[in-house]
Amino acid sequence: MHPCRVLFICTGNSARSILSEATLNRLGKGRFEAYSAGSHPTGRVNPHALNQLVSTGISTDNLSSKSWDRFVGDDTPPLDIVITVCDSAASEPCPVLFGDFVRSHWGLPDPAGVTGDSAAIAAAFEHAHALITYRILALLKLPVEAMSKVELQQALDHIGTITDDDAEHV
Prior knowledge:
This is Arsenate reductase ArsC. Keywords: Arsenical resistance. With 170 residues, the chain is α/β, with parallel strands linked by helices. The chain has helices at residues 16-27, 47-55, 118-140, 149-159, 164-167; strands at residues 4-10, 32-38, 81-84, 102-105. It has one domain: Response regulator (Rossmann fold), CATH 3.40.50.2300. It contains 5 helices and 4 strands, in the order βαβαββααα. Strands 2-1-3-4 form a 4-stranded parallel β-sheet. Helix 1 (16-27) links the parallel strand 1 and strand 2 (32-38). Helix 1 packs parallel to helix 2 (47-55), helix 1 packs across helix 3 and helix 2 crosses helix 3 (118-140). The longest helix has 23 residues, at 118-140. The model has no long low-confidence stretch (mean pLDDT 89).
C-alpha cells in the first residue's frame, strides 16, 4: 500500500496548512505523505511559520504556497484524506475540494492574523503549531490502513475537535 496521502487546505496556504504539511511529513514519514494548498494562495509561506518549524527541528525544504489546482488533475497522486484547517468559527470561508477521499475539518485560528509585537506573533504560531502537532499525533495512532472510510471519517472529525484542554490526553 502507498503511504496515506493527506492534503491540508486553507485559503492562503501560508501558515496553518504549511505547518500541518511539514509536521505530518516529519512525524509520519514513510506511513504518510502530506501536501498543502490553498484556494487563494498568498504565493509565499509566512516567515513566522518557517521560523516555528525551524525552532522545532522540522525541515522547511520544498515548502511553498500553492493552489489546490495542483491536486485536481489526472497526473496528480490520488489523495486519501483532505483536511481543511480554516477557522469557520471566525467566519473564514473554507475551501471545498471534490474527489474520492475522506474529508474532515480541523479548524484553527489563523496565527497570521495576530497583530502585536514579535513575541505575541511568535506565541500565536507556537500555539497553532502545538495544536496541529497534538492532532497529528492523534492521527498517527489511528490504524488508517485498516479503517473503512466511515470509520476514518468519524475518527478524523473527532480529532478536529481536540482543543488545548484535550491535548494533554493525546
